[in-house]
Amino acid sequence: MVERRPFITLEDISLRLYERVLFENTNWTLFDNQHWAVIGPNGSGKSTLMRALCGKVPVVQGSIGYHFTTDGVKPQDDITYVSFDAQKTVLGWQDPFYQARWNSTRSRDGTPVAEYLSLDRVYKVNPFEVVDGLPRPAAFAARRDEVVELLQIEPLQEKNGVQLSNGERRKVFVAQALLKDPRLLILDNPFVGLDQEFRARLRDVIERLTQGDMRVIVVETDRDEIPPGITHVLSVEDCRVTAQKPVFFPGARYAAPRKESPTTKGFPEAERKRVSQPARTQKPGFLTGIRDESASEKTAPDQPSPIGGESNRVSSGRVSQGQALVYLKDVTVSYNGTRALQGVDWPVREGEHWALLGPNGAGKTTTLRILSTMLRPTHGTATINGYDVVKQPDFVRHQIGFVSASTAVYDRMTGWEMVEHF
């Protein structure tokens, strides 16, 4: 029997975050043959606990022991924490303005992906400082080629960081973490924002990592599937550890019983099914300009502008009657010769609810940025409730609400202060 040794130990710890004391009297031992999933609902404290392992949250009671360190090396230097909340500043942009990436001349100031994955950027080397312990350039180049092939991100290397979609940024962020070759890799909600193909690939990558010398912790909600290779689960709720247990079979889910959703509580069974029905989707590939050419002669009624007596005429082969609340007509977006969208026609009518689907980089966010007036199309028109998004942006903004995965949140404001601020 192989003797297992402690890898990290948390002994009777308590954490402080601003004025709050969290995870009081917590004990947790990670052994060197274990890989963990830390699960719990949103706001349960999972990320705070992981940041404490990285030395980013003060321990006000007890101690954290790191049993994998070598002389002269800080244990936190051998831990890589991949949290996508920090990716905007890491990849070279500072505010939501850059989200209109295909229409911003300032995007040339961003960091190319190839440079972001260079040895100097991965290890944060100061060019005016002599640093010991770095990998040899040839060995790093070989590892970089391996990681790029493993994650299949070769086409992204020549792109500027601010031109990447949300999902593409996450892929590059994972690649940068793997290039550090840490002793402990922490992936915080790693599957959020990734397309189905890359999610499957990332699960395979995690399983492969668990077979080597690297220890892995995956942070997920309590409804997510446990990736292959994960051996144990730490359940967290209300900033306290509620359970520690092994994973009995790959792909398990460890969800605690939940209260009935307020959306369907008290509804008859038939009404519950109606509420939970999936949204409609247009046929795959519509973001690349797929059209119904057989109906190209049909036109929709005029969409009059509600101000100034101006009329915006729109037509599409898919529209035969009624007025579309949202309408994109032959919309194209180009940036320095690169097409982000091409010939998109999309009507949304009253009573319809849509899911906008596509792989990372397909143009989903670009489409929504146009509708939210944050991006001007290179060609074509877009209207919301009759208002043109380019000519009448102020009127459009009073018609819509827009929540993005990149929406800014101020960590020193309460929820109500955020609502009042915006």
Polypeptide structure, described:
With 422 residues, the protein is an alpha/beta fold. It has a 6-stranded mixed β-sheet with strand order 5-6-7-3-8-9, with helices on both faces. The protein has a 4-stranded antiparallel β-sheet with strand order 13-12-14-15. The protein has a 3-stranded antiparallel β-sheet with strand order 2-1-4, with helices on one face. The protein has 11 helices and 15 strands.
Quick structural overview:
The protein is an alpha/beta fold and 422 residues long. It contains eleven helices and 15 strands.
Question: How many distinct helices?
Answer: 11
Q: Element order, helices and strands? A: EEEHEEHHHHHEHEEEHEEEEHEEHH
Structural class: alpha/beta
Q: Which geometry do the CA atoms define?
A: globular
Chain-wise SSE layout:
Blueprint: E1 6-17, E2 20-31, E3 36-39, H1 46-53, E4 59-66, E5 79-83, H2 87-90, H3 113-116, H4 119-122, H5 137-151, H6 166-179, E6 184-188, H7 196-210, E7 215-220, E8 232-237, E9 240-246, H8 269-275, E10 303-304, E11 311-312, E12 326-335, E13 338-348, H9 364-371, E14 379-384, E15 387-388, H10 393-397, H11 415-421
Parallel strand pairs: 3-7, 3-8, 5-6, 6-7
Antiparallel strand pairs: 1-2, 1-4, 8-9, 10-11, 12-13, 12-14, 14-15
Helix pairs in contact: 5-6
